Amino acid sequence: MSLSFADLTSDKGLKQLDAYFVARAYTFGVGPTAADEALIKLVGKCPPAKFPNAMRWFKHIKALQGSKAKFGKSILSVATGAGGGDDSDSDDMFGSDDDDSDDDMDLGSLVSEATLGKWIDVNRSQIVFEVKPMGLEVDLDELAGKICEITVAGQSEGRFDAIIEKWGSPMVTEDTALIWGEGYEKVPVAFGLFKLMVSCIVCDEVIGSDDLIEIMTEKFPEEISSIECHAMNKASQFKKKAFLKANPDYEE
């Protein structure tokens, strides 16, 4: 898989980059890869605030690179995604020197050995979805309620359960990996039709916008016409220090 941008030191190229990262946390897939490292070299310096999505991505990747320098190995080790592409696309951006192929990775391997049994601050994102119903007969209040009942438990043959188990931190659980907003909004479209705006906060390394769009589409095929990621921004991290302060009786 390849990308094509204009000069990424120009406003034209950064505008394209910003649009690309509206609904993405990483260049490809659900975690950092060699593609992020290659792309950040082309960008060179942090994009200005008028390109918020590109700036968010740049700072996040720089922070992960910093964690590599600090700890001597990666915090994350995530496959690029669906197989096939160039060898450079399947390299682990911050991973070990192991020669294991992506095909040999099971779902629980999405969190690296560097993470197991260790506590690190957990990155989170806030996502806003724009959900368009099949028609006027769809009860948006009822649909919003059903969407907000979705959890990571049991989804995709236990994929998210396996990641949470591998994480090894009590801060990352079924309840904290996906938190839906308490409210929702119905926005008029045309001719009496409304669309639904719902939001959630996710642990980045557990579940993402593409995962949730797929889940919602599969669960409610007769009610949902289409779903788009309207906005995606970094949310506050889960901090180990804050967790221990709130749970003084917890034994590490």
List the defining traits of the structure above:
single chain, 252 residues, alpha+beta, Alpha-Beta Plaits, 2 domains, four-stranded antiparallel sheet, 9 helices, globular
Structural write-up:
The chain has 252 residues and is an alpha+beta fold. It has two domains: 11-105, no CATH class; 122-246, Alpha-Beta Plaits (2-Layer Sandwich). It has helices spanning 11-20, 34-43, 52-71, 87-90, 140-147, 159-167, 174-177, 209-219, 240-246, and strands at residues 122-133, 178-190, 193-203, 224-238. It has a four-stranded antiparallel beta sheet with strand order 2-3-1-4. β2 (178-190) and β3 form a beta hairpin.
Explain briefly what this protein structure is:
With 252 residues, the chain is α+β, with helices and mostly antiparallel strands. It has 2 domains: 11-105, no CATH class; 122-246, Ribosomal protein S6/Translation elongation factor EF1B (Alpha-Beta Plaits, 2-Layer Sandwich). It contains 9 helices and 4 strands.
